[in-house]
Amino acid sequence: MTTFKDLGLNENIIKALTDLGYENPTEIQEKAIPQVLASKADLKAFAQTGTGKTAAFGLPILEQIDINNRDTQAIILSPTRELALQIAKNIEEFSKYMKGFSVAAVYGGASIEEQIRKLKKGVHVIVGTPGRTVDLINRKQLKLENVNWLILDEADEMLNMGFKDELDKILAVTPKEKQTLLFSATFPREVESIAKNYMHKPVEISAGEKNKGSDQVSHQYYVVSERNRYNALKRIADVNPDIYSIIFCRTRRETQEVADKLIKDGYNADALHGDLSQAQRDSVMEKFRNKTLQILVATDVAARGLDVNDLTHVINHKLPDQIESYTHRSGRTGRAGKVGISIAIVTAREKGKLRPIERLIGKQFVSTPVPTGKEICQNQLLKLIDKVHDIKVNDIEINDFLPSIYEKLEGLDREELIKRFVSLEFNTFLTYYQNAPDLNDSDQMRGSDRNSSRDSDTRGKRRDDENMSRFFINIGRKDNLNPARLIGLINDQKIAKNIEIGQIEILDTFSFFELDKNYQDETIASFKENGADFEGRNVNVEITEKKRTGRSGGRRDGGSSSERGGDRAKSGDRKRSRDRKPEGDFSGFGRKRPDTKSAFGTTDKSSKRRKR
Ligand code: AMP
After folding, report:
1. 25 lines ligand 1 (CB under 6 A)
2. Once rounded to an integer, what is the mean pLDDT over residues 535-557?
3. pLDDT tens per residue across span 479-493
4. Fewer CB within 10 Å: N-end or C-end of the chain?
5. Helical segments of 174-277, H only
6. Are both 188 and 286 inside the same structural domain?
């Protein structure tokens, strides 16, 4: 096996690496280090996050730095403040035994004067975010005319974040003869064009295939309807009691909303996005790094630079708009030799987005059913039993109480006692999940051949039909009704938030519409209670027979309001709709914590998991 010594690094660096526990070089290090040591040629490196790329570019530069020269000799550009700080910290660690060497990070959101003071002392290696670097160049506080190395780390992210102009400016003030090292996990057109414009005949290396995800990550997808997306997320958290995860959202608003709901529902979660102040972001990241926080809900940009190696899951609450971002997201798990799972929660309609991602990462998503209540109970129960098994008993403290406890429990045998103690912790959970609905989209359950069902509108419609009730409404075209106005009228009734509306059929004097069948009663009641009218006409809404279609074989889903049997047949659905509500409110074990404490007389480690 290759050693760092074989790669040509000196004793001081190797000693520092040994202190860090680095025994052997990673693949990207094995390829990049000798290349940069031996050649002045530019380098284009395809490397995922978490593959050891900081050392891959940092070590050969440290090896060649002239410590006696106080000029800035290398500038490393990184997309975020967090990543810049992380890189600077790593370089400090690598250079621990290099007397007189200095590195500094420059980034926005912190005092520029402080950074200028540092620069004035002379810094060999600067790690900067593009914006602050340009600012310092403009103020003539950062001189890059003597740099030998320019490193673009996570070039794709820098371009994604709109730093093209800043990169142009920085590249323009660096000398022509420098060596440029470009590291990127993905190589979209924009990155290729940077390479083309600013690099001279670059040597290409790669750890793993271009744009390909880590082999350590398995990719799964869950198909749910839009309204079940959040509940599916909670089940993923519930079925994995030891989850340590980032949930990715596309927008700051979505991020905050998901985090707020999780917090309200008692999960140990928090949000990380650009609307937070730097101090808030730092605090959240610190809590997540030291595992006080179990679930981080984040935007793609905000999560960059968060150096966490042992995530169990990455969850795509919604898939990213740019498919390359999926590689970055999933690359947050399966790092440093560990295995990880990347989960995409998609609606049947969004399944079409998986195929291009599969092509990009060179791996297949595995269709996975949303965990059932039973699976969740089993996992949580086993976790509880493990905790009971491993708990340290404080004999001295508990001894005084034992006689009266034994006396109270006299007559209960071992099995009975176990059952009762377990139930104490578990009853709420069991009761809750006993009636929990199946969250899998029916399309998913119908067959395993997802390729044939993917993107198929007709299937989607058919699936939706089964979840819809059909309503008659006594107004039509002659009343100036059109689909948009009907949707407006339905929304005005405020039946439920984001209620799904299905097919609409406008006829001359009356019309039909379909709505989520779980809200069948609420729909009728809302129209009635609101005394709804349309252009002065009293509106009357009734449940009606489902439209017969050739495909569904004319099956009756709804039953007309006059069909009493049909109505009765739907009472189960009504019950489900009531049961669904707690899924949003459920606080899981978090709520039971105080009982657990008194039951087992212990401070429970997993109480960290959920806030009270
Ligand atoms: P990076 O891709 O540079 O962010 O590195 C990912 C993680 O792997 C960091 O926590 C590094 O400390 C760790 N790492 C990098 N190279 C090695 C190595 N050769 N041996 C062990 N750990 C490493």
Report:
1. yes
2. 61
3. 888 887 888 888 888
4. N
5. 189-198, 229-239, 252-264
6. no
